[in-house]
Structure formats: C-alpha cells, structure tokens
Amino acid sequence: MTENVIRPMLWWDIPAVVAIENDLFPVDPWSAELFWAELAGVGESRDVAVLCLDDKVAGYCSLRHVGSEGDINTIAVAASHQGQGLGSQLYEWMRLRAIEHGINQLFLEVRSDNETAKNMYLSLGFEEIDRRKDYYAVDVHALVMRKRLSHD
User: Fold this and answer.
1) What is the pLDDT along the chain (152 residues), one digit of tens a residue?
2) Cα separation of 29 and 44, whole Å?
3) Which of 17, 94, 123, 126 has its CA 20 to 30 A from that of 106?
4) What are the structural domains, with CATH classification, of the chain?
5) Across the strands, what pairs with 107?
6) pTM for this entry
7) What is the 3-state secondary structure (H, E, C) of 111-143?
8) Phi and psi at residue 92, in whole multiples of 5°?
9) 3-state secondary structure of 29
C-alpha cells in the first residue's frame, strides 16, 4: 500500500521538484532558484509543501500570504500520478494553511490551455474573475481565479 504524506518542502527536495516542473512545463518551468526563493519566504509569507508517495516526491505547492489574501503560486503533480486526487489534496493543505493565516480569499493564475487544472479549480469552487490575454503565448491566456474562504 502506498503511503501518501504532505509535508513542508525542504532544500533537498528541490532537485525532485525541478525534475517534475521541467517535465510538466517544458516551455516555461520554474528554476531551482525560484524554488529556493519560495523556501526563503517560509515563516514570513510562504507555506511550501511536497506530497510524497512512499518517500518519493510526487507533487508540490506554494502558498503566498499577505494580509487577508493568499496566492497559490504553484501546485503540480507528476504526470505519472495525475488523476488520483493528489492535486486536490495539495490544495486542501494550502486551504488549511490559508485559514490559519486569516486569509479570506485565495487567488491563482492558470494557463487557459490547461484543461485539467482549470477543471480541478472549478470543482474546488474557484471562479474566473479576469483574463490576461496572451500572457503565456499567443492565444494562451492567464486565467485569474478566486475563491472566497469560509472560516467555519
């Protein structure tokens, strides 16, 4: 049986995270330096985690929080593990951190051509509130989405 654990990202997770990032986003992946910058903000304005299956990194996420607003900076699951609800589990981890920080609404941007991610965010209650035309490429827009959080 596979053990599924979400835990804070540590510096030694970065090579595995970058490998997943490069596989999923070959055109515009985050660099190792960007993940180091995310880790540098932990405790101040960031919560960063990895999802491990049997101690192997299979996904990751980053939440940025400022005041009562939060941004999901990144959330990704390795291609070989997609479709198993792991992205939703990473989102839930971030949602709970957001509530702990007193965040009232979460924002994110998603590529207009990423149907899987768009559908997941819609199923989680996000709504599209804006569109940044040709943000990623010609005819590939950034969809800005928001979800208001309940602190019940």
Assistant:
1) 567 899 999 999 999 999 999 999 887 889 999 999 999 999 889 999 999 998 899 999 999 998 899 999 999 999 999 988 899 999 999 999 999 999 999 999 988 888 888 888 998 899 999 999 988 878 888 889 999 997 65
2) 25
3) 17
4) 4-148 (3.40.630.30)
5) 71, 146
6) 0.89
7) ECCCHHHHHHHHHCCCEEEEEEEEEEECCEEEE
8) -60, -40
9) coil
